[in-house]
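User:
Care to share a sequence and structure tokens?

Assistant:
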Amino acid sequence: MTSDVFGTFDEQVRTRLSELQSIAQSGGLDEAVEAMVHSIRNGGVLQAFGTGHSQAFAMEIAGRAGGLIPTHAIALRDTVLKGRRPASDLQGGLLERDSNIADELWGLHELHPEDVFLIASNSGVNGSIVGIALRAKEKGHKVIAVTSLEHTKAVTPKHPSGKRLAEIADVVIDNLAPFGDATVTLGGGEDGAQGVLAGAVSSITAAYIAQLLTLGTAARIQEEGETPPLYLSANIPGGDEHNDALKARYGERIGSMA
């Protein structure tokens, strides 16, 4: 039984990753890559944002080995670490659903006109996600969305605007997760008992998309005769020196220099 569910989940994941690879190879990510390249070439920073499990997407985009240096992750916890909110505000999902939190987050970071926003949300309807997307568009930034089109079309927006992330973004990338995210049914049977769902895939597909976008952007910069600004692992000789030299160009725009 256990091996069966492992195999089912493996198939669910592999099928989606294979489809994403096909989309990328056929040019389906080109518009997003071009926006990212244009931002970097013009001194911009790639601003990544996600809440809940979608924070993992932002972590794949910003500040990791093999990733692009002009990147920065915006997080709800910034309202505590850089703002004046108590840590208790981070408990539960209230901030994630707060449509006004975007204004608060916006004032905590140094943002330039050339910056591009990469926003991930499986549902694409929570107040903070939609609020940041709307604020970015209002300020003239390009917005790239990573979301489940199947899920977002099936739920009601929670932002006062009545909009979904996918309806705001300049570029929309489907993470191919199903409604509810989980992919494997456990239990159920001839007695009529209803099975339960497990095996969520949105974090896996979003991370894969983040790496495809990073690779595509770095490859395009290299094809144009320049060296892409990429992080080396801080855990290899010379990594810190390499990273610090490039990070100095952006200073606090990409976070602490410590």
About this structure: The first helix runs from residue 2 to 25. The mean pLDDT is 93.
